[in-house]
Amino acid sequence: MRLLVVEDEHDIRVFLRNSLTEAGFQVDVAADGKGAERLALDAPYDALIVDLGLPDMDGINLILRLRQIGLAAPVLILSARRSVDDRVRGLEQGGDDYLTKPFALAELLARLRNLIKRNAPTANEATRLRMLDLELDLLRREATRAGQVLQLTPQEFVLLEYLCRNAGRVVTRSMILDKVWGMRIQPDTNVVDVHIYRLRGKVDGRGQHPLIKTLRGVGYVLRDR
Ligand code: CA
Questions:
Q1: Is the CA virtual torsion 218, 222, 223, 225 positive or negative?
Q2: Centre of ligand 1 from the C-alpha of residue 51, in Å
Q3: What whole-number distance in Å separates Cα of residue 188 and Cα of residue 173?
């Protein structure tokens, strides 16, 4: 089980790394939001522990950013902010559990294990999506076409996953903006078109049977005919 701990206070960070390692986890640590983003992009974590008061960004913003680029792992917020408002806000904006400082290690471990257990896919749950020779491994966040790994950015993967989950159904630009970028109102940008263009180059680019179709003025659909 692999964890990412995001905590700027040196003593707490070291304590968490040591005690979680002792408890059998593989632990990476980051002291700020930027460092956490870099690590989260590189490695699949089973859970994150995130402090809210970080030097370069608010922990909530960090969680929102990670969710937007496709982080699926559960997040335990560990913060000195104890008010009901703070806790509700944390849970509403991407945190899966909230523990206040000072904390007891035993409670942190119990909550962490619960989160990981709840999040683990059951044997029946689909961890792969397929269309023709396109395959998405949702756990490894990896897509292949005819067995060849596609070099997708995390956001392109989320976009492709969304198209795959809605295979055969037309999705509009505003649906994509909402689901992939978390924007409810369609801004005056062509961000969706640009990403679809790049994604299509990678998925359908090598003379393969095209899967990503454009319905002019409507949106996009992934289908095999
Ligand atoms: Ca802090």
A1: positive
A2: 6
A3: 11
Where does residue 131 fall: left (phi above 0), alpha (psi -120 to 50 degrees), or beta otherwise? beta
Cα(219) to centroid(ligand 1), Å: 43
Q: Which fold has domain 2-119?
A: Rossmann fold (3.40.50)
Ligand 1 midpoint to CA 103 (Å):
14
Distance, in Å, from the CA atom of 48 to the CA atom of 121, rounded to the nearest integer, reads 17
Residue 92 CA to ligand 1 center (angstroms) comes to 20
Q: Which two tokens stand for residue 84?
A: 């009901």
The DSSP call for residue 180 is: I
Residue with tokens 């002792």: 22
Strand duo 148-149 + 128-131: pairing: unpaired
Q: Strand pairing of 97-100 and 128-131?
A: unpaired
Please, which residues bridge with residue 181 across strands? none
Q: How far is it, in rounded angstroms, from Cα 41 to Cα 140?
A: 12
Boundaries of every domain in the chain? 2-119, 128-222
Q: 47-95 pLDDT, tens per residue? A: 999 999 999 999 999 999 998 887 889 999 999 999 999 999 999 998 9
Question: Is 122's pLDDT higher than 70?
Answer: no
Distance (Å) from CA 150 to ligand 1 centroid: 38
Beta-strand relationship, 2-6 and 47-50: parallel
Single-letter code of the amino acid located at 120: A
CATH architecture observed for domain 128-222: Orthogonal Bundle (1.10)
Q: Is the pTM higher than 0.70?
A: no
Q: How far is the CA of 54 from the centre of ligand 1 (A)?
A: 5
